[in-house]
Amino acid sequence: MKITKIKTFLCNAYRTNWVFVKVLTNEGVYGVGEATLEYREKTVISAIHDLERTLVGMNPHNIEKIFHDSYRDAYWRGGPVLMSALSGVEMALWDIKGKDLGCPIYQLLGGKVRDKVACYANGWFAPAKTAEEFAAKAVDAVKMGFSGLKWDPFGSAWMNLSRKEFKQAMDCIGAVSDAVGDQVDLLIEGHGRFNIPTAVQIGLELENYKIRWFEEPIPPDNLEGLAEVKRRIRIPVSAGERLYSRWDYRRFFELRCGDFIQPDISHAGGISEVRKIAAMAEAYHIPVCPHNPSGPIANAATLQLAACTPNFYLLETMFSDVPHRKEITDEETIFTNGMMHIPDKPGLGIDINEDILIKYPYQPCNLRHYKGTLTDIRPDNAVSYFEKGKIYDK
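^ thats the sequence. predicted structure below, dont judge the formating
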């Protein structure tokens, strides 16, 4: 079997554009992957086609060789663009292998350690602005059965918080905490906003709310600073969505930067690389909770890791999505009692519909995080992609 071509697709998803990859072979078996790199989607498309020049003619079953040689021969190795491109292609290669051998990917990685995984919700708050609106949205999310709620209550802040901004953020957290009680975990997102003293001040205050974790409290460039924040506060810290390989994570573990790690399967090299990062984390007794806010193929790939990774702890899950998510793939997301079930279909167990994808072409999107519009993460017509009865069953 030989790789003959790599196709790429851009599909607008309101806050970003999903980047899908399709690797074709001379035997008719193909695989799909996802390389969604928010706000740099066309750049990663170009990187994928740079890889295509050397991958055509190679055996798609030789995933380890393809990854190693592609990473080595990039010369300017690492970073989000190369690693996202590799991630999408690598997922598609695993999809080919699973389909060709007639089994799900987790079977090729040692088999299941679980049939389902606990999920926390992101995006549940859209388009809330006030503490009261966040609290009302939180109650709705709990009714859907999620085991945790994550959100960023810090508005347009960058580096520092005024006393007024600090109070507004804590009022929001307090309102949500009061509304849901002890029913779910609360996870506070920092989006790499703060300097060290502000992150420490927030972390100390969060002790009052039984927070599951404080995520990415400072920018990801300073692992020594992240380790210092962790040492100075007494709540768990999570981070790692903007680390792109096991080599990035080696320093993270050496410095004891976090209590939970969050590699993104679309950015950190794909299934094999995140599996290796998870194995490193297991040696430090650190749970893996992948960053997973992207599209349906990334979610399908992350579920394969959830199935076979002993220290996989929580799955990030979007509360709702654009209506056409249900049209562009044949995704079936089984969600019951706060748990997402692991599918047993060959490969990734998901396919794209090319004819539908072209109906939702690329549209430029800009980062909202520091503009005060972060909660505008979903359109007004956003819907759950867990269908009642067949797919969603409370």
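Residues 11 and 360 are 5 Å apart (CA to CA).
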